[in-house]
Structures are given as structure tokens and as C-alpha cells.
Design goal:
heterodimer; A: 433 residues; mainly alpha; ABC transporter involved in vitamin B12 uptake, BtuC; 2 domains; two-stranded antiparallel sheet; 4 strands; globular; B: 249 residues; alpha/beta; Rossmann fold; six-stranded mixed beta sheet; four-stranded antiparallel beta sheet; 10 strands; 37% helix
Chain lengths: 433, 249
Amino acid sequence: MSQIASRVAPPLPAATEKLNFYGLWLGTAIALLLLPKIFSSGGSLTTFSLIGISIIFSLSYNILLGQTGMLSFGHAVYYGLGGFLVIHSINIIGAHKLPIPLPIIPLIGGLSGLLFAALLGWVSTQRSGTAFAMISLGVAELIASSALILRTFFGGEAGVSANRTKLLKLFGWNFGPQIQIYYLVAAWTLIAVVAMYALTRTPLGRMCNAVRDNPERVQFVGYNPHVVRYLAFCFSGFFAGIAGALAAINFEIANSAYLGAEQSGTVLFATYIGGIGFFIGPIVGAIFVTFLSLGLSDLTQVWQLYFGLIFIAVVLFAPGGITGLLMMHRPLVKAGTLPKMLPSYLIALVPTLAIIAGLILSIEIIVHYTVNPGDDSHIKAFGVGFDAASPYLWTLAVILLIGGFLVARRTWIWVGHAWDDATSVAREKGIAA
Amino acid sequence: MSAAIELREVEKSFGDVAIIRNISLSVTQGERHALIGPNGAGKSTTFNLISGYMAPTSGSVLLRGEVISGLPPYQINRRGLSRSFQVTNVFANMSVWENLRCAVLWATGQRYAFWKNIDKLPDVRDRTAQILADINLTPRRDVPAGLLTYAEQRALEIGITIAGGADVILLDEPTAGMSRAETERAVALIRRLTEGRTLLIVEHDMSVVFGLADRISVLVYGQIIASGTPEEIRGNPKVRQAYLGEEAA
């Protein structure tokens, strides 16, 4: 290392930092290993598997959106094609008794995703922005509609199914029980997360960020932004294919829903809610959205409406997503001024919760009268039973909404003041916000 | 020896409007050449034509004797020509360090590598550190480029331009909007960093132009009306009338 670099460049990580870094991955691996010992029910194992799949899919999406600045409306294409090719592969391998065990099958999904991304991506990555978004939407519609037309490959409405237990056994595992699938998904999730993290720290990964920030200038430092976007697109397709493969293995079926607009929308939703500005954001988003979709669908009939409202709220008030909100507080934690914020947060929480309660009440009452007007007015939502016909409840909903809003406006101003105080103290201590 | 940059009967029109009308210009290797002219004369367009941002309608641009007009900007950059922008054009969300490192990557042969850890490339690290020290932004290393002061952003702009080691440098109004003191510092920086390289600079500040340039070309309404040493330009009646006279009035 030359003198100038040792004086000027950012310090290379010390041995302890490196140890912490590898320790983090090792700790995650051990946690994944032990998780089923704590939550051993079939339901939770399925939930964990779905979360793992969603994490890989969301991170692959963020290679486009967060890292390279490309908004895709058709990312499920590569997820779905990965899934379909894996189902067909399992059937072929099973029928011919080929010596290929299930654990390496997701690689086939990844390579399928990569192949299709490489084929379809060259044209769409010519431009970023609106042109890319529109082309991604067009390609998605094309593939999704052909899924219903090309029945021999996509199996029409019913989809294609496979039996994952018929493949070559490894260590006596036939991957019938959910616990074995959990470990398969967990291992692949860890590998994919590590690989995608490593990708952000390569010359290509950094040029992706540069293309996101300023594709014009990239051309004047010797790089072709089209090639950068194309390579990012290929990597993104590869990891989406792995996620689709794991989903297909988990459900032992692939159908047109895998490729559809809803799947593409969900991954955008999870990634954005988690936060596109941080590597960990999509992981947080995947966990949050998976739990939310499993939980909300039990609690209310119109859970998708709440999904939409949450999405709008995040876009409007927290464009950095959940991770962005948490990371905002890092300087305060470092400066020890976080406790200054707590009282104002608690005060603001009360009217904010009142607004939410009023909103939920209004939505459920309106849904009752528009969707099932003839039914019994004693309905149940979020585990609470109430009478949708009661004028008292209507009044309560209105009071909560309007009163909550009026009070909340005040309290959020207090939060703003407390925030300014806390950050200025942090800044005085030399901690950059 | 062939010229570092040569423009041969270059024309550029947008629809019916001719912006550049038949420019021929030659900049010798190692020369500091200034391009001056009133607003709207086509100075920035000339830069865009040389750097590949636009292709000329007719005529050709040569870099060290090879035709480069029609090539995309990144290929021209790889052949050793680098430019800065009049309006600061950096990677706003990335730190100063990251900005400079991106500008160093191609020149150090990293291409689109996705199998190397960027922090473990001593070559890249050394060169980035060198440029960072050269533009005096070491204390601001980890600040996002978008949060720098205007003068700092201009310095970073120059840093990105020279980081790739190009030996032909085009600077588009590097001191625009700077205070007197900032301008002096910027000129000293430019003088130091372009030592031994070919420089073509667009500048409005006449003290900068006459202090820095070996030769000057005057562009008026898309045509070069005079080209020569600072003394020749100062004494040229056509220039005085078309351009310097306006300044005095």
C-alpha cells in the first residue's frame, strides 16, 4: 500500500471489524439452523420458507430499483420462468432417474432466470426511467398471457405440478417433510444474500450506483451505462429465478400466478416498504410483508386494501421505507439523544392510533354496506366484533378520524421540534446526520 | 506530429438552425487552449461534439489523428479524452471517495468486473487517494457529493474529469459562479493538474483565460473568427469588435 493511500484513503477494516462481519454471517447461519427448534410447527416452518423465498426475490428486485435505479413492473417473469423450468426439470430428472439431487435444482431456476433476462433485457435496458418501466410491463404482459395460451409448457389455468421427493436422495433426505424444505430454503437464502451483498462491493456494483445517480456522467468516465444496466438486469434475473425455483419446490407446482402482475407488484411493494436505500431494506420488507399478508388475510376481508394504504403511506411519509426510518435514528443513538425523542413519539402515537382506528372502522363499515349489504350487520374485523348498523359507531369513526387528525397535526409538530433538538445535539457532538 | 484535437469543417444544426457553422480548429499536444466567445456562440456545443455527446452534422473530429466523431462518449473517453460539465454533473448520492473511485475504475482496467472486491484493489485505492489529495477534498472524503459546497463540487467535477488519466482534458467553464478567491484557487488547481496534458477550456473570465492559455480561439455565431496567442487575440480588431468590445461597453 502506497503512502498516499494510507494517509488519505478510508481505513481498511480492522481485524476486529472483519471478525464482526464474518461473525454476523455465522451468527445468522446458526440462528437459521436453530429457528425450527424454537418454532417447530408446520405452519411456522412454511412461513419461514415463504419469508426466505421472498427475501431472495426482493433483494434481486432491489439490484434493479435500489442499486441501479430501474423501476421494473415485470420482475415476476424471471421468478415465474425459473419456477416453471424447475418443475419441468424435476419431472424430467425424476422420470429418467438422473443423478441430480434436489438441493442443486434451484441453480437450474437461477440459470433459467439469467437466460431469459439475458434474452429479454438487452432491449429494455437501453434506457432507464419510463421507457424501461413501460417495456418491463409489456414483456410481463406478453409472458403472462402466453402462460395461458402455451398449455403444453405452462399447463394453462391449473399449472404444472411435480413430485420433489422422487429425486436422488442425499443423506437419506427425500425433502418430503417441510423441515427439510425449510433447511433447503434457508441454505439458499443465506447463499443468495451473501452473493448479492458481495455484488454490491464489486466494481460492477459501484458502477450500478453511479448509473442510478447519473447515467450521463457514467459515459464520460469510460463506462457504457447500457452494459451496466444489462448486467445488473441479468444478475437480478438470476436471483429471481432462484427464488422462483424455491417457491416451485416448496409448493410442488408452478402456475400462471407466478408470472403475473400481482407477483410483480408484491415484490415492488415489499422492496419499497422495506427501504430501497439500504442493502438490508428488502430483507426487512420481505419479512414484514410476508407476515402482514399471512396475518391480515385472517383478520379482514379487504386485506389488500390495507396493503395499498400502507404502501401509499410509506411512499408519502417515509420514502426511505422501514429501514430508512430506523436508520434516521442512528446518529441519535450514537449521540445518546434518542431518549429525547421518546416522549414526543409516545404523545404523537395516541392521536395517530386514533386516526388509524377511525379509518379501519370506517373502511369495515363501508365494506359491509357495499360488499355484503344484505348480511347480518354484526361483523368482525381484526378480531373485534361490532355492529356495522350502529349510528354510535359511525359517529365514533368520524370523531376518531377528524379529532385524531386535528390533534395529531399538533403532536407531529412537537415531534419535529424534538427531532431538530436531538439532531442538533448530535451534530454538536460531531456525528453527521 | 499530429494535433491532439483537430476539428475539420465541423457543422452542427438542429433542424434548420445551424449552431456550429464550419469550424476548423487544431490544438497541439501539451497546449493549453482557451475557447472564448459571447453567450450562445456554440462553445458548449463544440465541447459536446468533441466529447461524443453529440455527433456533428458534417465534418469530422480527430483525436491524435484518429477520427472520433460518431463514437459514443465512453469510447472517446477510453481513448484518453475527458471532459467536465458547465453545470456540475457528479454522482450526487455517492461520497466524494466513491465518485472519484468510479472515475478511476475503467482506467485501471476493472471493466465490468463482478468477481473482485473493490476495496481490495490497491491500484484503484492509490489512484483515488492521489486524486482526492490533489483536489484538496481529503477532509470531505465521506460526504455525499450532493452535500458539498458549490466550489467543492466544482473541484470534484475537475477531479472526476482528470481521474481516469486522460491526456486530453476539456473543461467547460470550471470557474463559473466562483468568488475571486475561489477562482484563483481553481486556476492554480487546473494549472497543476493539467501539467503535461492537453487542455481545451471554455471560460468567460478573461483574467483566467489570459492567465492560463497558450493559445486562444474566439467563437462567434458558430464560427471561429480568430485563433492565436493571447497577445494576438488582444490586438485583433475583429475580436475587439465582436467580443471584447462588448465586454468593455
